[in-house]
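Thread: Newbie trying to understand structure tokens

Hi all, I'm a second-year student working on a class project, and my supervisor (Dr. K.) asked me to get a predicted structure for one chain before our next meeting. I've only ever worked with sequences, so writing a 3D structure as a token string is new to me. If someone could post the tokens and maybe explain what I'm looking at, I'd be very grateful. Here's the chain:
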Amino acid sequence: MNKTNLAIIIYVIGIIIGMFVLDIWSAETSPKAILGMIWTALFAIALYYAEKKEN
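---
Reply by user tm_fold:
Sure, no problem. This is what the structure looks like when written as tokens:
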């Protein structure tokens, strides 16, 4: 399994945990939504570095 697939799996698990445990997608706008944005930014950075290492 390469690093890109591992990053994607970790991201999806984190999103699922955020959905059920943190209730990120609730009707109320709260600071928890910022956690989702930070998690997505970390995912983008991880994908960039994983692809950079492969090439």
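A couple of things are worth pointing out once you decode it. The two ends are 16 Å apart (CA to CA). The mean pLDDT is 81. Feel free to ask follow-ups in this thread.
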